[in-house]
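Our preliminary data section would be incomplete without showing what the modeling component actually yields. Below, a chain of 332 amino acids is followed by its predicted structure, encoded as tokens that our downstream tools consume directly.
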Amino acid sequence: MSDFLGLFLEQIQSPTLGFLIGGIVVASLGSQLAIPDSIYKFISFFLLMKIGLTGGIAIRNSNPSEILLPAIAAVVLGVVIVFISRYTLGKLPGIKVPDAVATGGLFGAVSGSTLAAVLPQLDAAKVPYEAWTAALYPFMDIPALVTAIVVASVYLGKKAGGSTEKVEIWPIVKESLQSSAVTAMLLGVALGILTKPEPVYESFFNPLFRGFLAVLMIIMGMEAAQRMNELRKVAQWFAIYAFIAPILHGFLGFGVGLIIHKLTGFSIGGAVVLAVIAASSSDISGPPTLRAGIPSANPSAYIGASTAIGTPVAIAICIPLFIGIAEVMLGR
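Predicted structure:
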């Protein structure tokens, strides 16, 4: 509990949540600060390209035959997590379905910081894992975000039409894939796989990444402040969900990893990585993608739930929990 509280306080002070809160504060005080939409669009493009390039480079350096089944599992997990949120959180009193779906998209997507945290802890515990497991994150991240956008679009389309008639899914999927946010991420993945972008990645994308992310959080905080009155009525449900969901999703991921272990010899450490990325929630690719794809969703709901509670739970509880289970299974 003390570790969790420490990580919770650390998250409050982290650049991601800190700049988000800063944006909320200045907007709540009636500041006239305004950041042009064109700057927001460029920053979103930059961040998503960087995430895509990171994943693409990792995939290019991996063995395709080894990564196939875990990658399929990651896709399925990302999609399933969105539907879990849609039909649990989305059914609670006062919760708007677009907010629940966006929350599911964020929790289905992956946190790079949580992924970065689990690998050295596996090394310290001497639990073996495949070097390419870090490349699994775009396979979970992108399908979760696209699924969330599609599910929200279907729901809003039915609501606007006032009809339960069949909704054509493919046009929505196509539109989602062609959206600026998802296209930027997929373009980065493709360039990372098909080219060798390391020089420009290291000299341009990597150094500027955190600064642009901080500016994006200010923008989203200012947006969130405009919807605070809506959130106050249902904040407790998002807090409860954000605490339970990472643990539940982690067990789903670990269970799937153990099945792959039995079928292919996938390592127990690899199952831990799959569990932790399932338990994590995106604080980088998710917010700009969902803001663009589900503009009716409340950023203060899904970002607050993910960053303030979901990430500390994933790091302070899920990582030691699944590493401990792995050590027991390895007979230590």
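Residues 172 and 263 are 35 Å apart (CA to CA). The mean pLDDT is 83. Preliminary results of this kind motivate Aim 1 of the renewal.
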